[in-house]
Amino acid sequence: MPTRQGWTVALVGVGLLVAGRIFGIEELYVLGAGAVAVVALAVTYARRLGLTLSVQRTLVPPRVYAGNPSRVDLSVRNEGQRTSPVLRLLDPVTSTRGADVLVGPLAPGVTSQAAYRLPTDRRGIVLVGPLSVQVGDPFGFASVGVDAAAREELTVYPRLDEIAPVPHTVGDDPLSGAEHAASPGRAGDEFHSLRAYVVGDDLRRVHWKATARRDELMVRQDEMPWQGRLTVLLDTRRAGQSVESFEACVSAAASIITASWRRRDLVRLATTDGADLGFAAGSAHAEAIMERLAVVQVTSGGSLRGMVETLRGGGHPGALVIIVAG
Q1: N- to C-terminal Cα distance for the chain?
Q2: Maximum CA extent, the chain
Q3: CA distances from 168 to 173, 186, 193, 252 (A)
Q4: If we measure between CA atoms, which residue out of 132, 177, 164, 175 comes closest to residue 151?
Q5: Which residues are paired to 99 by β-bridges?
Q6: How far is CA 181 from the centre of its chain?
Q7: pLDDT tens figures, 119-175
Q8: Residues with Cβ < 8 Å from 292, sequence gap 6 or more?
Q9: What are 114's strand-pairing partners?
Q10: pLDDT value for 209
Q11: Which residue has the higher pLDDT, 223 or 6?
C-alpha cells in the first residue's frame, strides 16, 4: 500500500505523463513514467518482505487508580532467517494519537524492548490496540502492515483520597445474628455478659464468683467477632450534575468504600438507577465495586428517595452514606 509520500509521487508522475502527452514534451513523459514506476516498485518490494516476528504487549498494571502510572511494555523478536528492516509499531490508544514506535533492524533471534506510558488522568476504560507492525521500502513510498497483538483494556479506577473509615453503627451482624453496639470489640474475646450454663459449654468459661452468688453455674459470654457494614448510595441522576461534580462524587464513593474495606468491613455500593452490588468482603468484591465505579455514568432516570426506601426494606444497611452533587 503506498504511503502518503508514495501517493504524492504517484500523482505527480501521472500529472507529468498527462502534461507530456498534451504538450508533446518527451522529457515530462519520461519523468512521469519514472515516478510511477518507482512507486510501483516500492509497493512490490514492501509486499515481498517476508517477516517472521514474535510481538508481545503487556499492560503494567492492567488496572490502576486515576493519577497512578501505567505503561505498555513491547517485546519484538525476529524469528526469521534474515535481518529485519526498520519496523514501525502503531498501537492506537483511546483519546490519544496512539503510540508510534520505531524498532531498528533486528538480526535473526534478536529481541528488542520498547515501552510507552498510558493516559490515566481520568477514570474509565482505555482501549489499547490492535497493534500493527508496518514495514516499507527504503524511500518510504510504500508500506505493509500486519496485526501483531489484539486489543486490550486498561481499567482506570476513580481517584482515591486517603480518609478515615466511617464510624461503626448499631446493627445486626449478619455473621453472628446478634445486635451490637456502636463500637464493639473486634477481637472476639472481650467480656460481654453472663448467662446460665448450658450442657456443652466450655467449663473453662465458668464464672465462679457469679456461680457462688447465684448458686447456679454461670458462664462468661464473650463478645463475638463482628464486622462493620457500610452502604454507599451514589446519585447518578443527570439533573444538577456537571462533569466535574459527578467525577468528585464518584471519587468520594471510591474513597469511602476503600477506607472501610481496608478495615475489613462489609461494603456495598448502590446507585439511584437501581444497581446494587450487595454486601460482601474480600478483595474480589472491592475490585468489582471499583470496576463499576470506573464506568458509571449519569442517567436520565432514577429516584434517590425510592432507592433509600429499597435499602431500608432490605434489612439494616449499617452505616449509610448518600453522595449527591452539591
Answers
A1: 55
A2: 129
A3: 12, 11, 21, 19
A4: 132
A5: 91
A6: 38
A7: 999 999 999 999 999 888 777 777 788 888 999 999 999 999 999 988 876 554 444
A8: 269, 275, 277
A9: 74
A10: 87
A11: 6
Q: Report in angstroms the alpha-carbon separations of 177 from 30, 229, 260, 311.
A: 94, 14, 21, 19
C-alpha grid cell, residue 304: 434517590
Compute the chain's Rg from CA coordinates.
Answer: 34
Q: Please give the pLDDT value at position 195.
A: 79
| pLDDT tens digits along 186-243 | 444 445 577 788 777 778 888 888 888 888 888 886 654 556 889 999 999 988 788 8
Sign, CA dihedral 271-273-274-275, equals negative
pLDDT (tens digit, 9 = 90+) per residue, 42-100?
Answer: 777 767 777 788 999 999 999 999 999 999 999 999 988 888 888 989 999 998 999 99
Three-state DSSP state, 155: strand
Helices (H), 169-318: 208-214, 243-262, 283-295, 304-313
What is the C-alpha separation between 84 and 49, in angstroms, rounded?
Answer: 9
> Which among 240, 232, 250, 216 is positioned nearest to 318, based on CA atoms?
232
Minimal CA–CA distance to 2: which of 33, 34, 41? 41
Contact yes or no for 165/260 (Cβ under 8 A): yes
The Cα 276–Cα 288 span in angstroms is 12
Whole-number Å distance between alpha carbons of 118 and 60: 10
